[in-house]
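forwarding from the other thread:

> can someone predict this with adenosine-5'-triphosphate?

sure thing
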Amino acid sequence: MLKIENLQASIDNKLILKGLNLEVKAGEVHAIMGPNGAGKSTLANIIAGKDDYEISSGTIELNGEDLSELAPEERAHNGVFLSFQYPVEIPGVSVTNFIKTAINQTRKAKGLEDMPAKEMLKMIREKSELLEIDRKFLSRSLNEGFSGGEKKRNEIFQMAMLEPKLAILDETDSGLDIDALRIVANGVNKLKSKDNAVIVITHYQRLLEYIVPDFVHVLYDGKIVKTGDASLALELEAKGYDWIKEELVQ
Amino acid sequence: MSKYTEDDLEQELKTKEYKYGFYTEIESETFAKGLSEEVVIAISKKKNEPDWMTDWRLEAYRVWKTMKEPEWANVHYEKPKFQEIAYYSAPKAKPKLNSLDEVDPELLDTFKRLGISLDEQKKLANVAVDIVIDSVSVATTFKKSLGEKGIIFMPISEAIQEHPELVRKYLGTVIPTTDNFYAALNSAVFSDGSFCYIPKGVRCPMELSTYFRINEGGTGQFERTLVVADKGSYVSYLEGCTAPSRDENQLHAAVVELIAMDDAEIKYSTVQNWYPGNKEGKGGVYNFVTKRALCETNAKVSWTQVETGSAITWKYPSCILKGNNSVGEFYSIAVTNNHQQADTGTKMIHLGKNTRSTIISKGISAGKSQNSYRGLVQISPRAENARNFSQCDSLLMGNDCGAHTFPYIEVKNKTAQIEHEATTSKIGEEQLFYCNQRGIDTEKAIALIVNGFSKEVLNNLPMEFAVEAQKLLEISLEGSVG
Ligand SMILES: Nc1ncnc2c1ncn2[C@@H]1O[C@H](COP(=O)(O)OP(=O)(O)OP(=O)(O)O)[C@@H](O)[C@H]1O
Ligand SMILES: [Mg+2]
C-alpha cells in the first residue's frame, strides 16, 4: 500500500529525514516509536502532503502511484488520513458541518453526488456510538475549547466517518484518559480490515496493548533504525532509547 | 453560536447552486440624462403623484443642490457625474398581471436564475415577494392574504396613490430630506421602492421580501422603503439584490426608514450582492445608502446585513432608541475582495431610559480591498442605564488588503455600560492544511472558515436567506486564494 524509499526531507535548510525506508501493506498495523524530535510528525506530514518541506531525494508511493505530484486533498481523496498530534481549531464550524463537507468533497472528487442526508445522519449516529461520543458534542465548533482528550477522540471520529485506506495516528493516545484510550483503540480496531492499514505513532506501549502492531519501528535521527514485532515496544518501554544509540555506534 | 446541527444538515443539503451575473433584456423607457427641477417634476408627473408629493420632492431637490458629497468615509473613488445619470427608468408600460403565465418569460427566467422562482416561493417558502426591477414594481404577490390582516405591502408609488395619508404622515420623519447629500438626492428623484404597514397588534404571518435589481445601463437607482410597524406588531422584512455584470459605474442611493411604535418589532435583513467591479477594479456599483430606524417605547429593531457586492459601499443602518426600554441590534457581515471598498457600520443613538443595543460586525477582506467598520454609540444625558455591547471582528486573507475599525463612543450619562471588543485574525496555513488533509480543497476550506467566522450573523437571518447568504460569501471569495 505505502512504499517509502530513501526519503530525505528538510525544513528551513535543516535536514530532518535522512534516508527513510518504510513499507506498509494492506491489512497491517505499524507502530513508529522514537525520541522527541526524531522526525515522526515530519514523516506523517510529508505523507499527508504538507508543503513546508523540501524533499531532496526518495520516493513515496501509495498503491503504486507517486504521491509527490498530488495535493494534500487529493491524497485524502485517495484514502490517506492523518490524525493530527495537534488538531487545529476552526471557530464557528461545527464538527457535523466539517465532516459533512469533508465527506462530500471527497465524494465530489470521485464524481459522486453528495451523500444523502439520511445516510449521513445514520453514519454519524453509528460512529458516534462506536466512539461513545455525546452527539451534542458534534454541534460544537471544531476543536474550539475541546480538552486534549476530546480533540483526539474527535480525530478518530473523523477517521471513522471518512473510512480511510491508510490512517496515520500521530500520538493519538497522548491526552486520552484510560477509558478513552480503550474506547478509541477499540474504535480503531473495529475499523481495521484486510484492505486498509494503520500507522500508529506513539511514545507508549499501552496503546499497543489494545492496537496490536504487526511491526514496530524505531525512528531515530531521521531514519528507521530498527524494526521488530510487538515485543520491541515492550523492550523500548523498559530500556528507553540509549541501547539503540549504542547499537548504532557499533 | 455554531448551532449547525444534524437537523440543519438535511435542510442544507437540499439547497442548490446560487447563480449570478446575468443581464436581462427587458424593454425599458429611460429619461434623458441630467437633473433639474423639470426632471423632478417629470418624475412626479410620470407617477401621477399628488401635489404634496411633487412639492416634497422639489424641496429635497433644492436642498440637495446646496449640499456637498460627504468625504469623511475611508473610500476613494471617482465622483459620479450627477448630470450624466438618467434619473428614471421603467420597464415599458406593463399591463397588470393576474397570473405567472402573463409574466414576460425572460423575467421569469431571471427569477429562476436568482433562485426565486415565484412559483416555488408561492408554494413553499411562505414569502410574499414584491419585485422591483429597474425602479418599478412589476409583480406583487400575496397581497390578498396580507390584506385580510390589514397589512399593506406594496410599491411605494402605489401607496402614494392608495394610502396617501399614511405615506404623507411618515415619509421623511426618520430620515429628513435634508439629512445628507444622498438622502436628499433620493428624496428628490426616488423612482419606487416598497411601503409596508403592519396594523396594531398584528404579527405579519410571513417574511416580506423585496428583490431589487439594477438593470438599465447608466441608470441610477433610488429606492425608497418605508416600513411602519404600529403598536405591538411584528414584521420580518427581507431585502436582497443581485445585479448583472457590467462595465460602468452605477450609482445607487437608497433610503430605508423604519418606524417601530410602542412594543413593536421589526427585523430587517439584507443580502446585498451588486456588481463589485472586475478584478482590476473597473466598473461596479456605488452603493450609498441611508437606513435608519426609530424605536418607540419597548420597541425593537434588528438590522442584519450581508454585504458582498458593490465597488464602493457607504452604509450605516442606525437605530434611534427614543422610547424607554427600546432595543437596537446590528448584525453585519461585509466582504470585500479585489478592489472593493466598504465603509460600513451603524449608529446607536440612546435617548430613552434602559435602552439596549448590540453591534456584531464581521469584516472579511481579501485581494486588494479595504474594509472599514465605522460605528457610533451615543448615550444622551437622559438615557439612564443604557447598555451597549459591540464586537468587531476582522478576518484578513492575504497581505494586500486592509481592515480598519473606527468606533466612536459618546457617553453623556454616567450610568451607561459600554463594552467594546475587537479582534483581527488571518486564515492560518495550519487551518488550511487541516482542511486539505480531510479532502477539502483550499477554496472550499476558505468558504468554510469564513462561514464559521460569520456564524453569529448568519444565524440571525431567516433560514432560506441564510443559505443563500452562505453561497454568496463563497462566490464572493472565489479566486481569492494565494
Ligand atoms: N519549521 C521548522 N523549522 C525548523 N525545525 C523544525 C521545524 N519544524 C520541525 N522542526 C524540527 O524537526 C525535528 C523533527 O520534528 P518532529 O515534529 O517531526 O518530531 P517528532 O518525532 O514528531 O517529535 P515528538 O515526539 O516530540 O512529537 C525537530 O527537531 C523539530 O524541531
Ligand atoms: Mg510529533
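Chain A has a mean pLDDT of 94. thats all i got for now
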